[in-house]
Structure to design on (330 residues):
């Protein structure tokens, strides 16, 4: 027994065991280093910004893309990774969250952060870029937040939406957008008020287009759209419905005379010649006006009645406006 005990405490054997343990530990450390290198490579090649916070909401990791995207200076990281509260305070003080008390903005955001709820939102930065922010809680109380610059996607979506609702030549609202606004205006007028639809045609446009060419005709339509837009109030709508057919949606009027005042203003603006490519072109308009809820209570009905009033103006020689249901012309 004594001999076995002496053998077990043999210094050579203990050194051998220690060397083996150190070897295993070295392999573990090297494996850990390799995992850290792999994690760093993943973070730096991540297509957006990413940062990781621990249970105390202190940052423990972030990539260079995040610092670049959000314009974080090196001085913010000079003492190591900042806490979430420090980031919020830095952003608030430079106006990232808009007007308001910076400390209150920080407090509001920290209260939400402590709830540790997953979230997705977009923020438009002071420089105009749009950033999508996604936050996800992780086990142990930490948080992972990713940032993606979606400025170009939102710009493309906005452009597509604009094209779907605006005339490509004049950039005026098209029939689709006009119809949507008309439906809303009629609903409001039914409850309280009066609104008018002015149906407008350029007299003799086909002759101008055929004799002077489509390029001149297009330029004339653009110039006509500008004059019409200059005649209305900010809350009214002028639209190109197709060809030389335009319409004005006049909302929130008190009496029929308000519509006739606008019609006279439009006609007076078109009394002046247009100058297109050094050539003076005289253009006259015909207009027809119908009212809701006086004459109609639906989109189709008021458009038809405004068209009927327009036809009466055209058969009367043009350069005039007619009211639906009225016998006279103006």
């Amino acid at each position: 027994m004594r001999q076995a005990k002496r053998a077990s405490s043999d210094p050579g054997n203990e050194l051998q065991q220690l060397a083996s343990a150190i070897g295993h530990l070295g392999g573990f450390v090297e494996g850990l280093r390799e995992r850290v290198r792999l994690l760093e490579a993943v973070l730096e090649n991540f297509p957006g910004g990413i940062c990781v916070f621990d249970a105390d909401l202190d940052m423990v990791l972030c990539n260079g893309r995040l610092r670049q995207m959000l314009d974080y200076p090196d001085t913010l990281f000079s003492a190591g990774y900042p806490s979430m509260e420090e980031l919020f305070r830095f952003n608030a003080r430079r106006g990232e969250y808009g007007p308001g008390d910076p400390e209150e903005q920080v407090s509001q955001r920290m209260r939400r952060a402590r709830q540790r709820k997953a979230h997705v939102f977009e923020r438009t930065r002071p420089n105009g870029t749009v950033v999508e922010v996604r936050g996800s809680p992780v086990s142990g109380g930490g948080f992972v937040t990713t940032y993606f610059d979606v400025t170009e996607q939102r710009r493309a979506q906005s452009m597509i939406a604009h094209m779907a609702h605006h005339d490509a030549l004049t950039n005026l609202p098209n029939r689709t957008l006009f119809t949507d606004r008309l439906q809303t205006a009629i609903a409001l007028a039914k409850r309280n008020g009066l609104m008018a639809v002015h149906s407008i045609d350029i007299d003799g446009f086909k002759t101008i287009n055929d004799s002077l060419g489509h390029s001149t005709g297009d330029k004339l339509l653009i110039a006509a759209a500008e004059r019409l837009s200059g005649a209305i109030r900010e809350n009214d709508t002028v639209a190109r419905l197709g060809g030389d057919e335009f319409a004005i949606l006049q909302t929130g009027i008190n009496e029929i005379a308000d519509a006739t005042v606008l019609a006279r203003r439009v006609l007076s603006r078109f009394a002046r010649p247009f100058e297109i490519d050094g050539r003076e072109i005289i253009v006259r308009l015909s207009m027809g006006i119908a009212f809701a809820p006086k004459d109609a209570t639906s989109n189709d009905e008021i458009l038809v009645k405004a068209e009927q009033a327009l036809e009466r103006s055209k058969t009367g020689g043009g350069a005039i406006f007619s009211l639906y249901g009225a016998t006279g012309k103006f």
About this structure: Residues 46-153 form a domain with the Beta-Lactamase fold (CATH 3.30.450.20). The radius of gyration is 36 Å. DSSP finds eleven helices and twelve strands in the chain.
